Amino acid sequence: MIIEIDFRSGVPVARQIADAITLRALSGALEPGSALPDVRELSLQLQVNPNTVEQTYELLLSEGVAKRAPSDERLVVAEPPPEVAMPAREAFARTLRGLLERARRAGLSPDQLRRTFEDVMEGIDRGE
Predict the structure, then answer these.
(1) What is the pTM of this model?
(2) How far is CA 11 from CA 1, 16, 93, 95, 97, in A?
(3) Cystine design at 29: which of 24, 69, 105, 111 (Cβ 3.0–4.6 Å)?
């Protein structure tokens, strides 16, 4: 699972990871019942402390985005409850803010960012 983490954003890493997983669950990229990587595997993939992944999974459980599989206690994606939609919007806003802050630090102007956003949206609308 590829998740981009911005260690300078001020948003806790566990929250960033939980937001990314939530957005994937809401978009259908992660289907209900899909197993999430175990703590060790995800911590190695993302190069973060296993405690951070534990915190992430606790967030996902408390927000109803994940649940424990009854058969073996592994974590799986739950059918997101309707009230997750607003936190997902907030998660998207935090992710977007982090991307925009990095782009600004890299020297992109607000006009360049707007044009890039519009180009990407047009590509999505065309199915690219």
Answers:
(1) 0.67
(2) 20, 7, 12, 9, 10
(3) 24
Q: Give the C-alpha separation, 83 to 74, whole Å.
A: 24
Q: pLDDT tens, 23-74?
A: 888 878 888 989 999 999 999 999 999 999 999 999 999 988 899 988 777 8
> How far apart are the two ends of the chain, measured CA to CA in Å?
22
Q: Phi and psi for 75 in degrees, rounded to 5?
A: -90, 130
Domain CATH for 67: 1.10.10.10
Question: Which residue, 48, 53, 42, 45, is CA-closest to 18?
Answer: 53
Residue 63 dihedral angles phi and psi, to the nearest 5°: -90, -5
Please name the residues in contact with 30: beta carbons below 8 A apart, sequence gap of 6 or more: 21, 24, 77
- Domain containing residue 114: 13-125
